[in-house]
Amino acid sequence: MLTAQQWIEALGLEPHVEGGFFRRTYQADHRPPVRTEQGERLLLTSIHYLLTEASPIGCWHLNRSDILHFHHSGAPLTYHLIHPDGRAESVTLGPDPYQGQVLMLAVPGGVWKATSLDGGDHALISEAVAPGFDYADMTLGHADELANRFPQHTELVRRYRTR
User: Which residues form the signal peptide (predicted)?
Assistant: First the structure.
């Protein structure tokens, strides 16, 4: 199994604003754009995303687009989700369905999300985003604002706050 550093080098990954490392791997620029309330977006984009022992948390953020997450290598990741109605859930994305892990996770747009590496050197995933990812459609979570909005989840929010 490759190490985190080997994956970073092999895939040309760069630091991501929410934590970890990434690189865009696909964008459907050969298709007509999709109209959204925020403007035109690509139909679909995709990235590789890596959390490492040195950068084990993907901080709270919200995307307007739906995102499919696919586990490829390494340790499991726990996705901490807070839905618009205030319901929280945790889902483990990983290689072992016998341990309750899922290989693919769909997170609808409008759901707050934070991710944590569950031990190990790394976890490598891919994400497919539709409509395609645009930084204008992502909001980084601020612990105080999220704790005020979801007071029942204050401890969870503070655990995975922005850097």
Answer: none
| pTM of the predicted structure, to 2 decimals | 0.94
How many Cβ atoms from other residues are within 10 Å of residue 60's Cβ?
Answer: 26
Domain count, the chain: 1
Q: Residue 107: name the closest of 95, 85, 90, 86 by CA.
A: 90
Q: d(Cα 50, Cα 58) in Å, to the nearest integer?
A: 10
φ/ψ (deg, to 5) at 47: -135, 160
| CA atoms of 157 and 147, how far apart (whole Å) | 6
**Mean pLDDT within 107-130:** 96
Phi, psi of 136 (to 5 degrees): -65, -20
**What is the number of other CB atoms lying within 10 angstroms of the CB of residue 32?**
9
Amino acid at 109: G
Average pLDDT over residues 90-107: 97
- Find the mean pLDDT for residues 83-100: 97
Boundaries of domain holding 39: 4-159
As given in the structure block, the two tokens for residue 33 are: 């754009």
